[in-house]
Description:
About 40% of the residues lie in helices and about 25% in strands. By secondary structure, it is α/β, with parallel strands linked by helices. The longest helix has 17 residues.
Amino acid sequence: xxxxxxxxxxxxxxxxxxxxxxxxxxxxxxxxxxxxxxxxxxxxxxxxxxxxxxxxxxxxxxxxxxxxxxxxxxxxxxxxxxxxxxxxxxxxxxxxxxxxxxxxxxxxxxxxxxxxxxxxxxxxxxxxxxxxxxxxxxxxxxxxxxxxxxxxxxxxxxxxxxxxxxxxxxxxxxxxxxxxxxxxxxxxxxxxxxxxxxxxxxxxxxxxxxxxxxxxxxxxxxxxxxxxxxxxxxxxxxxxxxxxxxxxxxxxxxxxxxxxxxxxxxxxxxxxxxxxxxxxxxxxxxxxxxxxxxxxxxxxxxxxxxxxxxxxxxxxxxxxxxxxxxxxxxxxxxxxxxxxxxxxxxxxxxxxxxxxxxxxxxxxxxxxxxxxxxxxxxxxxxxxxxxxxxxxxxxxxxxxxxxxxxxxxxxxxxxxxxxxxxxxxxxxxxxxxxxxxxxxxxxxxxxxxxxxxxxxxxxxxxxxxxxxxxxxxxxxxxxxxxx
Length: 483
């Protein structure tokens, strides 16, 4: 049983791990720490990597590799007061001759998160609370970090989203169907010095009836499987029904202007384009929405991957049962991605986009700016409104030029506009268009910029204006220009 102690104890433990360089940066620098230790696979190599007698290796063996360490060895490297605090809060157990960890401890950014040990994960217990895995980290990178009066972490798990949301939220509620998730979230809030997280156990929105939020982040159990036993990744609803339920119910818990941000999967039915499935979730919800598809798997490939991940019997009978489940329901493919929905009165818009889900940096702010760009088009996109608008290029936009040697000199062959931060993208440009875009810094109205540009162009002003407006609309659509 994990037991939060005093805030001073938590601070001392954080400082202990920081001084031992048990940090996110250290994990990023050691590629072999990107995988979970497995007794049948990676553990022997990881043990060899941590063979030297250092404090960092001691911590890695206890809290990441999940192997006991000799008591005398631990006491020779770690302060006695720290070991006592780790035992008192339940992270360590003192045996006859060894210390053993009760949790896996993972650094993420400047925080530390306790979750179930690798051995328990390998057992595929139904009530697992898992480490900050790639899906968790994706949602963390995706999350909007603007000030929020109230934030809901739906499907909190170990509480990582709730802990990070506390930095920009007046209040945070963390909910999960798994009672053990509440224990870990409370503990991780204490460990990271966060005091304003309210933890509740229950099904979906049931624990927060009649409450409203500025931000809801959701990492639901979205696997599309024939069973619902593993509640950390599966649910009892048919196919993608649970993700649909969240998308349909969430608007009722959002304040005007509030966002739902969700990691999810959805199915593609026979003869149906993939966007149609998600469109039905969102249309009529009172929300604008942006859907980013990151991957697609045919039913057989998906089944093999998920069978391995859920710990189900990997025999041929299991695979056939899964394939029959998809075939009987007309499922051709399973898609995965992220969805951002914003509650807004009036006529709503919906966008779909392809995006590989491997961001190297946070892109929550880019989501807000992307919504602002489409708002400009959808709500203020007439010629007159655009000409009166103050527009600027996205801050991380750069112009690349390609040259080729010809006749003893370099000849310009092409230009590419790139967005290097947040939601990346690129498009080819002509030199004259690049010259025009370079003038968009927000200091003048678009009409004033076009008039000045037309004065030096060898074309009638009305033609220049028409062409410039066409370019601006296309770049607003592609998120290169912001209001």
